[in-house]
Amino acid sequence: MLIVHKYGGTSVGSLERIESVASRVAKAKKEGNDLVVVVSAMSGETNKLIGFAEHFSDSPAKREMDMLLSSGERVTAALLSIALQGMGIDSIAMTGRQAGIKTDNAHTYARIDSINPEAMQSEIAQGKVVIVAGFQGINENGAVTTLGRGGSDLSAVAIAGALKADACEIYSDVDGIYTTDPRIEPKAKKMDFISYDEMLELASLGAKVLQNRSVELAKKLKVKMVAKSSFSDAEGTVIGEESKDMEAVLVSGIALDRNQARVTIREVADRPGIAAEIFTELAEEQINVDMIIQNASTDGTTNLGFTVPQNEINRAKAVIEAFDHDIGSMDFDDSVCKVSVVGVGMKSHSGVAATAFTALAKENINIEMISTSEIKVSMVVAEKYAELAVRTLHNIYELDA
Ligand code: ADP
Ligand code: ASP
Ligand code: MG
Questions:
Q1: CA distance linking residue 143 with residue 136, whole number of Å
Q2: Ligand 1 atom closest to residue 211's alpha carbon, by position in its atom list
Q3: Quick check: helix, strand or coil at residue 48?
Q4: Local confidence band at 38 (pLDDT 50, 70, 90 cut-offs)
Q5: Which of 122, 154, 156, 360 has its CA 20 to 30 A from that of 171?
């Protein structure tokens, strides 16, 4: 079997942890598998490097940021390879470029355009374990690019797809995908299986256990993902194609996204095209607008509310200030969060949203915004209610049963 392993920051967070990962990789190799191992930077390393850059500049050049941040993963790849060689396992560490990963030019959130797997294949054919620095590639100019936070998951899936690997195993500090973050709700249950679509929703809505783009790509390339723990030998959760009888499961999980801020613009001139202008400008600045609500117009103006990631709020402010002739006032609240209920069963059942609203109301949690899709209901509530809201929803849908 050809298997791709990916080890996240906590799994390689110290020299002892890297040694333990090396033992795990050595064992899988000795069992007769071909292996490519994708690694993240040691935990805290990427944030530390960002802090270094911010010491010199409020808005460091993105190209240089990629140069800086890609180094964290290279350190881990080289150390893991050295550790493996020390155990008598033949291995080679590669950067994203050496592994053949080409991306577009969008520094700090690049997309993978193609992977030429020949270099990796030739090392595998020589019996080596290939260790690849995750989270990075190169663009057409030969400059290093990075794939967005949590991007090593994406590297792993893309490599698994390019090599037609039998599985892509993502190792972290949890032994699978739970009905909600087990750090928030200890009663959360581990799932044996979850569909790509549900996992994609959970990941996009804040469950950072897998990066959402990696799940999207796994679905597209039909890569079998398995979420496992690097701290235990527990079975893990398979992420794959939904089967026919799965619609019986009404709600499969609850996600929490703390990285949300609410923007309210008051007395917006109520004329055709104004929303288009504001949201086009925000999109051009690459600001990720999520939920949007607009009130019915009274006396020729309306109120417009939407959410953006917290770290994009200053840029959003700058965009909206340019519309000062068309708006009354604006305010920002970054003490909000988004809780979401996800389940493919919602497609064929009604009442899921009403149940959620009722449960939160009983706890006196005010819902500030709502958005729904076929398989999810999301609600913005005050940040102070984050844990209570997650546990209340987890309980009302009996996810601990
Ligand atoms: P890594 O650093 O290895 O990439 P992450 O920290 O990104 O790992 O992801 C693992 C974390 O995801 C867990 O520690 C857990 O707190 C969190 N998490 C959030 N939602 C879930 C969920 N539904 N199931 C399992 N873990 C979850
Ligand atoms: N080191 C990068 C990050 O912290 C990528 C990753 O860990 O997947 O976002
Ligand atoms: Mg991660």
A1: 10
A2: 7
A3: helix
A4: very high
A5: 122
